[in-house]
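Worked example 2:
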Amino acid sequence: MSASPEESLVQQWTSEQARLRQQLVEEDTEDWQKSPGFSGLERVGGVDLSFIKGDDVNACAQLVVLSYPDLELLYENSQMVTLTAPYVAGFLAFRETPFLIEALQQLERDKPELLPQVVFVDGNGIFHYREFGLACHLGVLSGLPCVGVAKNLLQVQGVYKSEEHQSQIAALQKGGDSFPLTATSGKVLGKALRSSDKSSKPVYVSVGHKISLDAAVRLTHSCCRYRVPEPIRQEMVQ
């Protein structure tokens, strides 16, 4: 019996995801990442694809670039786009990444001096079913360091919204406090971070590409005035 079109697509995407996964770098590659105050980091980006309510085909692809450490807006680009790939859980990147890559490429063509040195992605990195979420996909294809920051917990690889998880959240006393998200394999896939003193609800940070988890968590905290890091939050208020 032949596979349905969607089954064939999922097989193709699974194979492509595994191929890209081999290129993933889960450690610091830039000098600024190893500096306690991120000395040398001047531009941080944020990307997101936001949908119109009730419409899962038309969306707004957004890219912002902020100065660092001041977090002042340097560049903003929003484009209405039409998604053609179907939604399949665990393969979100295949729907969304092409438009985010296009936004980065347009910036590189028009104003290369404003290209971000790191990109925050509204979604997960290696905290994913097959350890290759949207932030990893974008990082590998763009070649830029990427950090995944999710607002909701993806219940995956043995990480659940259990009583223990809730009590760990309650134990986060102040902005910057975090605890590891550990898979059943023992691998730490990310961290739950209390990003601001003002917000007791954590965000979920994971490595996208070319950055260590420690640097990703420190950088996320340093870019938060509120719960969500400014490069992602700015898109919501644009």
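The helical segments are 5-21, 31-34, 92-110, 134-142, 163-170, 213-222, 230-237. The radius of gyration is 17 Å.
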